[in-house]
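thought: fold this chain, then report.
action: predict
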Amino acid sequence: MSPRPLPFDPIVRAAELWTARIGPSTTMAAVTSIMRVQQILQSAVDGALKAHGLTFARYEALVLLVFSRRGSLPMRVMGERLQLHPTSVTNIVDRLEADGLVKRTPHPTDRRTTLAEITDPGRDRMAAATEAVTGIEFGLRGLTDRQTAALTDLLAKVRKAAGDFTD
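observation:
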């Protein structure tokens, strides 16, 4: 059950107080808004994926494997693409493997490398989970398609400035 909405925007109120007591509040309000929206989106996505026995991290891994040319990737590459520590990738693959959604296979030419390969049940689960998250628009509501594209572009600038990627 969701809490009742407040009769005012608490971030606007906090920004007013911040300005009066500390100084300019533009950045604080933007960051606080992003953090709150992240909570909202995470809750919506988690709710949609829970019925499919997935977390967002496991869902992302399945999507990545489906998008790969052969349905398999070295675990090191998965970590790079998902921007996760190798231990996190191992844990994700362990859980997906235990659920029969992926299997580990040896690399055909590099004995030191293990591939994570999506199984048919993994493809099916990913497809069903994708219907669930797209059905709720990943929890991102209240924006037009154009506004959503603009938001994505703006956030990409922040990510790039933080060193998340290069052009």
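thought: worth noting. The CA atoms of residues 146 and 152 lie 10 Å apart.
final: tokens above.
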